[in-house]
Amino acid sequence: MQKSPLSGKARVLVMVEQPLIADVIAFTLNHGVYLTRKALNLDEATVVLDEWHPHLAVIDMDIGGERLVQRLDHVSEGGARIPTLALTRRGDLRTKLAAFEQGVDDIMTIPFSPEELLARVLAITRRSYGQAIQIDPVIRLGDIEIDIMQRQVRAGTSEIHLTGLEQSLLYLLVAHAGQIVTRDEILDSLWGVDYVSESNIVDRHVRNLRAKLQNDWRKPRFIATVPGKGYKFIPTFKDPVQTPEPGHAGPRAPGVGATAVTTPAGSSGADPGAAEALPSSVADR
What we know:
Elements: E1 10-15, H1 19-28, E2 34-39, H2 42-52, E3 56-60, H3 65-71, E4 84-88, H4 93-102, E5 106-109, H5 114-129, E6 138-141, E7 144-147, E8 152-155, E9 158-161, H6 164-174, E10 180-182, H7 183-191, H8 201-213, E11 223-226, E12 230-233, H9 280-283
Parallel strand pairs: 1-2, 1-3, 3-4, 4-5
Antiparallel strand pairs: 6-7, 7-8, 8-9, 10-12, 11-12
Helix pairs in contact: 6-8
């Protein structure tokens, strides 16, 4: 049965165990008229259901999602079932069929692309509430604009086209602007926790993205290297960060903590993530 049309912004419960993935989902839904609240487990999700009465739910079936789906049957305003997008790390047909039998509206596997997530949430909203949600395909952060549908980034006068994996990497970093995202976190979020990789696969993809953004790692405008830890998206600004002298902290980006971006001792001046070009089968993902 179709629900009554929404009168304002749709409220979305996001229950995902990995905080980085939950943040990417919330950031991606900024393209639509959605408000989000995040829960890391079933207990937190139950509180959100009781207090906030969401219109939709995006839930991780691998951390107790089956029990949450049962609760979603009669907790929305008016007592009707809450439309649900299920997420799972198991891509087998049996898992997907079981989720549909339990009552979810759609299911997708983790890792996922931001544009597919947005498209599926929009489709569920349209089917459930009989109305299309207007979206703004472009998100602007300072000097950079990201067009999710075109996989395009505009930085100043440059227009850059991204592969699906490059866009997913950019959204992961942008959703945590000013925060360090470790290599292991990037690997788990974009390739999955069971993926066995060569040691520098993350560095190579960051290097490729930086090359497209014309981002010199020694004077980073968008993506900074935090030696020994990972990478950080810098909220954009006009003047690039200057590489500090050894032993001196670098200048801060506006609103960002003072994590120094330094050139490692003994560095030859090459990008730490530099490596040979990716095979086309990987780079075009």
